[in-house]
Amino acid sequence: MKKLYIALLLCVTSTVFAADDFRIGVVNISYLLENAPQAKTASDSLSKEFKEKEHEIVDKQKKLQEMRQDFIKNREILSESVAKTRERRIMTQERDLKRLSEDFKELLNIRRNEELAKVQEEIKRAIQAVGARDRFDLIFYEGVTFTSDRANLTSVVLRYLQELHATSAKQ
Q1: Which pairs from 73-76 meet CB under 8 Å and 24+ separation?
Q2: Residue in 52, 23, 54 with CA at minimum distance from that of residue 135
Q3: Are 138 and 15 in contact (CB under 8 A)?
Q4: What does DSSP say about strands 24-26 and 138-140: parallel, antiparallel, or unpaired?
Q5: 135 in the Ramachandran plot: left (φ > 0), alpha (ψ -120 to 50) or beta?
Q6: Looking at the DSSP assignment, which residues form a beta bridge with residue 139?
Q7: Burial of 111 from C-beta contacts in 10 A (0-12 / 13-18 / 19+)
Q8: How far is it, in rounded angstroms, from Cα 68 to Cα 169?
Q9: Which of 20, 94, 151, 162 has the smallest C-beta neighbourhood within 10 Å, fewest atoms?
Q10: What percent of the chain has pLDDT over 70?
């Protein structure tokens, strides 16, 4: 399938190359996802959104650790029934904390994927806008092994995203 795609692309581009001023560009999506201000804003937003819950989990972990240490320290002087009750309570809290942590991670991953999708969509629109503005005929953004500096549009798209972000921040 991949060979067919490449052959089809070569046929199409060879026909188009006959036309004057055919322009091809390449964009490094990974670089844009790491450096675009929209990605930083999304990351900061997620950190802010989940900070309180993360602190809650850390506090519960500390309290549970203190309970464990206290239990180990005082196990010899506790009656058997009190020791078993505390041990069960510790085990119950460990399970609850594990569930809480897993739920937290799952929700964080869901939200991270949602934010990533938004940023990817914004990058896609920026690539299309730069392509239309600068009259590119074809822009690649995945699966490119090599590109010359002349064909690399990553910095142009990044500047566009920065300008777009600055404009939206002013509003």
Answers
A1: none
A2: 23
A3: no
A4: parallel
A5: left
A6: 25
A7: middle
A8: 49
A9: 20
A10: 88
Q: Looking only at Cα atoms, what is the longest distance across the chain?
A: 91
Distance from C-alpha of 19 to C-alpha of 12, rounded to nearest angstrom: 12
Tokens representing residue 38 in the block:
């929209």
Cβ-proximal residues to 134 (8 Å cutoff; 6+ apart), any chain: 23, 25, 153, 156
Q: Which two tokens stand for residue 146?
A: 């090599």
Please give the structure tokens belonging to residue 84: 């078993």
Q: Which residue has the tokens 């921040």?
A: 169
Q: Which of 26-35, 38-47, 123-132, 144-153 has the lowest mean pLDDT?
A: 144-153
> Which one-letter amino acid corresponds to residue 116?
L
Q: How many residues does the chain have?
A: 171
- Mean pLDDT calculated for residue range 90-104: 97
Q: Do the beta carbons of residue 24 and residue 137 sit within 8 Å?
A: yes
List all residues 6 or more positions away from 25 whose beta carbon is below 8 Å from its beta carbon.
131, 134, 136, 138, 139, 140, 151, 152, 153
The enclosing H or E element of 25 equals strand 24-26
Q: Which residues lie closer than 8 Å to 86 by C-beta, 6 or more apart?
A: 67, 71, 78
Q: Which residues contact 35 (CB under 8 A, 6 or more apart)?
A: 158
